Amino acid sequence: MHQLYNGAANRKGIVLETYCAPAISPALLFDSLRLQQILGNFLNNAIKLTSEGQIILRAELLERLKQSERLRFLVEDTGIGIPPRDLQQLFNPFVEIEKQPAQEVGGVNLEFVISKRLAELMNGSIDINSELNRGTIMILTITFPIADPKQIKNSDFMEPINQLAETLADRRHAPSILDAEKEHSLVCVVDDSPVNHKVLIQQLNSLGYAVEGATGGAEALSMLQSKRYALIFTDCNMPKMSGYELTHKIREYEQRNALKKIPIIACTADAQLDVKQNCLAAGMNDVLVKPVALTDLMRCMDYWLPLPTTPPINRSLLIEIVGEDEKSIQEILKDFKRTSSKSIALLSNAIEMKELNEVMNLAHQLKGACQLVGAKRLAIICQKIEEASRKNDEETVESYRSKLDQEVQKLEKYLNSL
User: Fold this and answer.
1) What Å distances lie between residue 147 and 29, 64, 172, 387, CA to CA?
2) Strands, DSSP E only, in 224-374?
3) 3-state SS assignment for residue 195
4) pTM of the predicted structure, to 2 decimals
5) Which GO CC annotations does the UniProt entry carry (predicted)?
6) 314-357: per-residue pLDDT in tens?
7) DSSP assignment of 228-239, as one string?
8) Taking a C-beta distance cutoff of 8 angstroms, is the pair 6, 268 a contact?
9) In a 3-state reduction of DSSP, which class is residue 131?
């Protein structure tokens, strides 16, 4: 979580700290995607409401039972706080909390509505304490079953939260609407539910897609008159015009104007086979079941609207660090190529020899160099290796060896092309 949100906090001059109670069992079973979404919403809102000071994410153990543990996650900020009269309306998606001077806090309550719904799906609860001009504490209380570490390692259900950062590192930042139109990657989401609407747009943005939203079929058809979308998501059961009817009208419009068919993906809470068959019969291309897991959405998008692979060096980040002088950038990359080649060779050898203390030190050094030049994916891999070697976890270190080799090959190819 720190990796995912530290950049946004730093850009506002806010310190983001994380703390996990050591008493919490290392082997717990939970839906990492939903937990990620809740804590991500907490952190997004804390960053939005805070202009200076710090934000702290804490995980605490409240109670240990025989087969489960009751945990409390807290996100504390030193921001503007929420007026007392607005706390009662916080879980109403149609009411916007009061805007403070020079602050943009619109939409905060919708984030809480989403978080509350996700928490309830995991049998958890959310509480919020806030004091105006002093800060806010957002609290998630939830119980997770205790599992054997081996069960965790081999389970498809359990995915470490930090793995999401590694996955998203391979994705680009969402472009502007204008740029997305130019490259034909603009997505339209059609849903009458503000909560579902917001969640899906956030997920698509995190995967690198620019998105526009419509709250109904009529609005979507109107938008199609002026823009050509690369892909459309639609809810099936909407008032006035269902997703089935919307799809039928879009297909008629395409045929009438000799246009290429836009992939249309149905989003439905009904997982029955006949619903999927009805969607396909109506002219839709695929079906996703709500709530949509980020991994399922990513697979769907990679199939229907794949994006170009991001280069191993994030030049935008490099420019932020060293400026826009191309000569300076080239010199830094040449220095990085020379020094990193030696560091990578030493790290690979240390992994081969199982010298974990040396692995930890070398991975730490290489991580710092990678962060400096914007080699984000390689930096994350080095961090994983560093963390595993610090715990004397030879198996995990070895598991990242192939990822290290693959990313190094991409990096070398990129640097050699300069």
Assistant:
1) 6, 13, 35, 22
2) 231-235, 264-268, 286-289
3) helix
4) 0.49
5) plasma membrane
6) 777 777 766 777 888 888 888 888 888 889 999 999 999 999 99
7) --SEEEEESS-S
8) no
9) strand
**Token pair in block for residue 53:** 């000071």
Question: What is the 8-class DSSP label of residue 164?
Answer: H
Strand stretches in 242-298, DSSP E: 264-268, 286-289
Domains observed in the chain? 2-163 (3.30.565.10), 177-304 (3.40.50.2300), 315-416 (1.20.120.160)
Number of C-beta neighbours around residue 341 at 10 A: 14
Compute and round to an integer the Cα radius of gyration of the chain.
23
Quote the pLDDT of residue 154: 44
Q: Can you tell me which residue has the tokens 């006949």?
A: 274
pLDDT at res. 24: 86
Contacts of 166 (CB under 8 A, 6+ apart): 377, 380, 381, 384
**Bridging pattern class, strands 187-190 and 125-131:** unpaired
Own/partner contacts of 103-107, CB < 8 Å, gap of 24 or more, are 103/49, 103/51, 104/48, 105/48, 105/49, 105/80, 107/198
Confidence of residue 252 (pLDDT cuts 50, 70, 90): very high
Helix axes 356-373, 315-322, angle to 10 degrees: 80
> C-alpha distances in angstroms, 284 versus 69, 96, 99, 264?
43, 35, 41, 5
Given a contact cutoff of 8 angstroms between Cβ atoms, the answer to whether 90 and 164 are in contact is no
Average pLDDT, the chain: 82
Cβ atoms within 10 Å of 379's Cβ, excluding its own: 22
CA-CA distance, 247 to 234, in Å (whole number)? 9
273: Cα within 13 Å, side-chain hemisphere: 0
Nearest to 229 by CA among 215, 204, 217, 212: 212
Would you say 233 and 189 are in contact if contact means Cβ atoms under 8 Å apart?
A: yes
